[in-house]
Amino acid sequence: MGISSYVHRIQWNSRFIPCSSASHLPHLLPWFELRAEKSQYNSIGNILDVYNSAIDFHVVCAKAPLLLGIKDFLSREPNPLRAWAIAERYNIEESKNEAARRFIQTDEDLLTPAVRELQDIPALPYNTLLTVKRDILLRARAAVLNVIWGCPSCSRPSPKWKAAYLTRVSGQNPFTPEIVQDSIFELCCHTAGCLGCPGTFQSQDAQNARQRLKTNLKSILDGVDVN
Ligand SMILES: [Zn+2]
User: Fold this and answer.
1) Taken in order 115, 116, 120, 122, is the CA torsion positive or negative?
2) d(CA 174, CA 137)
């Protein structure tokens, strides 16, 4: 696209842009080009460059659509710690929480290889992220530990199926999908329970207990707030 086309578009959009000096054109060109075709955003760094330009030049109306694009990139960023760091730097609350939830669901610290974006973050918000992760995992593990329904044959002090279940899920992140699957409970009832345990699996108490665990874990994760 020739320079005259950009000048035309700047004039066409003049209500958005307080400066029209030709010396600013090189900085504004990427914004126009990429805003015209969203598919041209091919990386998070790319769209952040445009967003920074929009801020530098006070192109206020560009911020909202660019933020939508940034949120979309962050939701697809494979490393949730990197997504969180970017969201923290730009104070995108929704993306911060979404990234924190994904970070909590992994047992990795995700610091190797180094997340370069952490250099832009003060230590205190990072400390908050780690503290929230620790507290959420503690609550979730307590919820897993508390799942129980009785067996008429072996409920004291605790049904045998439960000891087998806790052994099986020990060491796993409490948000691992397998932990709430009916099949794992059924397996524990049949392979490690007493003769009465398999018959309890389909009882209303058992169904309620498993549903309560799912609901509790979802509620704990939904409640994550690192802002
Ligand atoms: Zn039993």
Assistant:
1) positive
2) 7
Helix segments in the chain, DSSP class H? 3-12, 25-36, 44-56, 60-76, 80-89, 93-104, 123-146, 160-169, 182-192, 197-200, 204-222
Based on the number of CB atoms within 10 Å of its own CB, is 49 exposed (0-12), middle (13-18) or buried (19 or more)? Answer: middle
Distance in Å, CA 164 to ligand 1 centroid = 11
| DSSP state, residue 226 | -
The length of the chain, given as a count of residues:
227
- Tell me the CA–centroid distance for residue 185 and ligand 1, in Å: 13
Q: Which pLDDT tens digit goes with each residue over 23-73? A: 455 556 555 555 545 556 788 888 898 888 888 877 777 788 888 989 999
Ion ligand 1, residues whose Cβ is below 5 A away: 151, 153-154, 159-160, 193-194, 196-197
Q: What is the pLDDT of residues 76-99, one digit of tens each?
A: 999 999 999 999 999 999 999 999
Burial class (CB in 10 A: 0-12, 13-18, 19+), 56: exposed
Q: Within the chain, what is the greatest distance between any pair of CA atoms?
A: 85
Q: How far apart are CA 70 and CA 119, in angstroms?
A: 19
pTM reported for the whole predicted model: 0.80
Dihedral angle, C-alpha 178, 180, 181, 187, nearest 10 °: 90
Non-local (6+) Cβ contacts of 73 within 8 A are 41, 43, 44, 47
